[in-house]
Amino acid sequence: MTLANNAKNQNSRILSVGAYRPETVVPNSEIAPLIDSTDEWIQQRTGIQSRHRAKDDQSLVDMSVEAAQIAIKRANIAVDQIDSIIFATISYPYQAPSAATELAARLGANKAAAFDISAACAGFTYGVGMAADFIRGGSAKYVLVVGGEKLSDFTDPTDRATAFIFADGVGAVIIGPSESVGIGPTIWGSDVTNRDAITLEPSFLEFKNGKSVEDVGWPNIAQEGQRVFRWAVYEMAPVGRLAIEAAGITAADLAAFIPHQANERIIDSLVKSMGIPDSVEVARDIRTTGNTSSASIPLAMDQLLIDHPDLHGKNALLIGFGAGLVYAAQVVELPPKPN
Ligand code: UT7
Question: In terms of domains, do 280 and 212 share one?
Fold first, then answer.
């Protein structure tokens, strides 16, 4: 007997975005002395002036409740209408239950399918692509996609290669049905030959096996900065171009470009090599937010819409890339102005 299929071929779009930035602002001057650096070097090499840091007793889920509640309110839906919660993170300190289920419990979304995805700085754009496919395939009507990190728990403040880059924050979007296509095809993939370029090690099993933090160190992010920089600059421009082409538009039809906020020099290089015209607003949230991995794109989206309210409802290219190395890009219609 043939089984039923629930595919609806339903279009979707981002209905709303919400952001949470921890209150504490950490300027470069606080970080530089620990890594024999200077405010000037950090700004010149990355564009970062300051970043936000969560309090010790403030969890990733605490922050994500704030961002998600804003997104839900702006989307004008009830919590129990959320069918699925996709939580992209690499800094949730529990394997189970997931950050998504903890968030669901705190929001009162008691029946939503809820799970975490580990795709590092591409996690949010992976999640957006998955949400669009869930809605197209009939598996969900409303999806909450969260990109959230408390990277300060997994960053060594004395590591010259990472201490000035990584930061805390959460961004969230509600994705729901739409009459027209509001999320273009996702161009995603990986380059696993470079999977040792960014790591979060050692494994917690080291501690089970009798080693101490003194023996093997705490699990912190490590990266070969130059290697990742070169990869991002050369490999991500074609991915962005493919996403634009797959959406059936040209770079001139974009109103905004919201790449992962890893380094402002990477952003500048992508703008140049992809031929993004001057008319396109480019997100540069990194200057005051640092690199928040999976949270960086929704945080930058929220800030861009605050700075340029005319961008509501216009087309934006998103590109996420990071540890794996993995990537995902899509053109989206930015959410409408909230009521
Ligand atoms: O989100 C995940 C994806 N991650 C990324 O996309 C990160 C991509 N990479 C980067 O953003 C950059 O590689 C960094 C910002 C991490 C580093 O910048 P860089 O321009 O690649 O620096 P470098 O490692 O090539 O070092 C250049 C110079 C060296 O000095 P000499 O040999 O030229 O005299 C380093 O010793 O800068 C020195 N240096 C520093 N100086 C002050 C390296 N780190 C520091 C530092 N402060 N923190």
Answer: yes
Q: Is 35 in the pocket of ligand 1 (CB under 6 A)?
A: yes
**Residue 5 pLDDT:** 86
The answer to whether the CB of 322 is under 6 A from ligand 1 is: yes
> What tens digit of pLDDT does each residue of 107-152 get?
999 999 999 999 999 999 999 999 999 999 999 999 999 999 999 9
303 and 264 inside one domain: yes
Integer Cα distance of 298 and 69 in angstroms: 14
Which of 178, 211, 226 delimits the end of a domain?
178
Task: Indicate if 291 belongs to the active site.
Answer: yes
How many domains does the chain fold into? 2
Kindly report the CA angle at 109 between 108 and 115, in degrees rounded to 5? Answer: 125
> Is 52 marked active-site?
no
> Is the minimum distance from the CB of 232 to ligand 1 under 6 angstroms?
yes
**Distance of alpha carbon 139 from alpha carbon 270, whole angstroms:** 35
Are 54 and 29 within one domain? Answer: yes
Count CB-CB contacts under 10 A for residue 94. 12
Which residue minimizes the CA distance to atom 14 of ligand 1?
Answer: 225
Residues 281 and 163 in one domain: no
Ligand 1 center to 131 CA (angstroms): 35
Residue closest to 9 by CA, chosen among 131, 185, 135: 135
Residue nearest to atom 20 of ligand 1 (CA): 45
User: pLDDT digit string (tens) for 22-37?
Assistant: 999 999 999 999 999 9
Q: Which of 133, 156, 178 is the last residue of a domain?
A: 178
Q: Which of 28, 52, 220, 260 is catalytic?
A: 260
Residue 81 buriedness (CB in 10 A; 0-12 / 13-18 / 19+): middle
pLDDT digits (tens, 9 = 90+) for 266-293: 999 999 999 999 999 999 999 999 999 9
pTM of the model: 0.97
